[in-house]
Amino acid sequence: MTPVRAAFLPLTDSAVLVAAREKGFAEAQGIDLELVRTTSWATLRDRLVYGQVQAAQMLAPLAVAVTLGLSQQPAALSAPFKLNSNGNMLVMSGEFAAALEQDLPARLADPLGTGHDFAAAIGLFRRKPIIGIVHRFSGHALMLRYWLGSVGIDPERDVVLRVLPPSLTVEAMRLGEIDGFIAGDPWPAAAIAQGLAEAVAIGARIWQRGVEKVLALRTDWMEAHAETVDRLLVALAAAARWCDDPANRGELAALLARDAYVGEPAELIEAGLAGQVIPRADAPPVAQADFLLFHREATAFPWRSQALWIYSQLVRWHQAEPSAEAEVAAGAVFRPDIYRRALGASGEAMPGASMKLEGAVTSPIGVGAHRGALTLGPDRFFDGRVFDPERLNEYLAGFSGTR
Amino acid sequence: MRIVIVDDSGARASVLEEGLREAGYDDIHFVPPRGAFVARIERMAPDVVLMDLGSPSRDTLEEMLLVSRALAKPIAMFVDQSDDTMIGAAIDAGVSAYVVDGLRKDRVKPILELAVRRFTAFSRMQSELDEARTALANRKTIDKAKAILMAQRGLNEADAYALLRSTAMNQGRRLVDVAEALITASSLLGGGAA
């Protein structure tokens, strides 16, 4: 057995790592996978960068930021496998949400209209609304900025973005320290269940296939342990397949509910896995297809174009200095080559390309694959923009009005 | 040199403060990581911030360090990035440190080393305390199981203990686990001696 230590945060999208350990997928590949629970992204990052763990469930933008030297000690990180797509939700206090559409399914179905209502609600609110994000380099922070920016809200001038860890979001709502927050499941659902907030926007409706957590490895470690990495990816792919199977939802939710993992009620976690969004404590659930994806549509495949989209947003919000070198380095964090090497013989659907247009698929479409049929689901951004990784500067220029 | 300690555990912070004062540092402040704690730190303009690596609020602090204008370009973490043993020791001890840029390395290193020693000493104290508590609880469990065997099988204390021990050895289990199983079984069967 090869020991591998992996750090994670208590979130529903730690599911693939948890299943790999608890359902024996790692063991079947000769890997003794030890999971290290961590309560901040900073500590997860430090454990990975300084070699206390070999792998981590990392926010995709954080992996890019560490590689570019934007988050403490610079280190070359690689993401050969994505742990999920989507799973986020923006929730706001009832007081703030009172100025939004009161037909909850309609509010969630129309992110553009809700965005404009949100802009109006800011003016009516008693203070500049304080919105919690879990990290500046998180997929949901970028998605929130994208959404606000698209309706003319300047995320740095018109609202206050406050960083706090997912596990403290609910308490901060209770104390009135924040007026809302965007985070991964189950924390938004927990705030709603306790009557502290209501759903305002679902990540999957801002970007239908939003990049979320990746398996992050130190590039030097990954290169020195190719054979272990390959077995780890085979184990994770099997675990992801298991997690995506509706028949396993109850068992997966019960596993994640343990204190060693997420430590929140299984019903809450299971509702998220099933895409059942309860928008307000007293309201019936709204079905959200693709609320959270683990395996289908080759979810785990690390499209380089997605790493470059992240880079485009870091540049857009002046978090990264644009340069040709930085662009190359950011794109190279996602490693489709390692994914192919590890899973080439596994029967997983394998995309033929490593980059694609992001946001161009409006209805499920079959794409070129080396093996097996691969259908990509719709991946539109709510405002209809398409990201062409070959035309990054043109894409950025298109945002000039909002930043 | 102004040092701010961000810590939830009053006891650990005191242990650290005591060490720092003994070493001659006297400008030391505590800030519990709650509410608007980053604003408080910002106003204090510290040279060094020490924080528990396990605190969920590290992301909040780092965000402040990134956007703050009050602190002159604060730099990260461990003093000497090339010093792997020091970094390893700091992570093992659960210490993270943030230091104002420009502060000389030789001035900061003793503070970090001291923090690592004190954090380690504190967690050793805690684990010794935990071990002592566990040992006491285990002994009570085993005594209870012995009493059941003595009452129900008419054994003397030494024989009851020997029986528990040989059962544990034969089953490859811990003595206390066998004792616990016996107590549970006995209470299910309505055994009186427990």
UniProtKB/TrEMBL annotation, chain A:
Keyword Ribonucleoprotein listed: no
Gene Ontology MF terms in the entry: ATP binding
Cited InterPro entries: NrtA/CpmA_ABC-bd_dom (IPR044527)
One Pfam family, short name: NMT1_2
Alphabetical keyword list: ATP-binding, Cell inner membrane, Cell membrane, Membrane, Nucleotide-binding, Transport
Primary localization: membrane
Subcellular location per the Swiss-Prot or TrEMBL entry: Endomembrane system
Entry coiled-coil feature ranges: none
Entry GO terms, CC: endomembrane system
Name recorded for this polypeptide: NitT/TauT family transport system ATP-binding protein
Species the sequence originates in: Sphingomonas trueperi
Lineage: Bacteria, Pseudomonadati, Pseudomonadota, Alphaproteobacteria, Sphingomonadales
Automatic annotation (TrEMBL), chain B:
One GO molecular-function entry: RNA binding
InterPro entries per UniProt: ANTAR (IPR005561), CheY-like_superfamily (IPR011006), Sig_transdc_resp-reg_antiterm (IPR008327), Sig_transdc_resp-reg_receiver (IPR001789), WH-like_DNA-bd_sf (IPR036388)
BP GO terms, sorted: phosphorelay signal transduction system
UniProt entry tagged with the keyword Phosphoprotein: yes
Keyword Phosphoprotein assigned: yes
Domain annotation ANTAR: ranges: 122-183
Every Response regulatory domain range: 2-116
4-aspartylphosphate PTM positions: D52
Keywords: Phosphoprotein
Superkingdom classification of source: Bacteria
Protein name per its UniProtKB record: Response regulator NasT
Organism of derivation: Sphingomonas trueperi
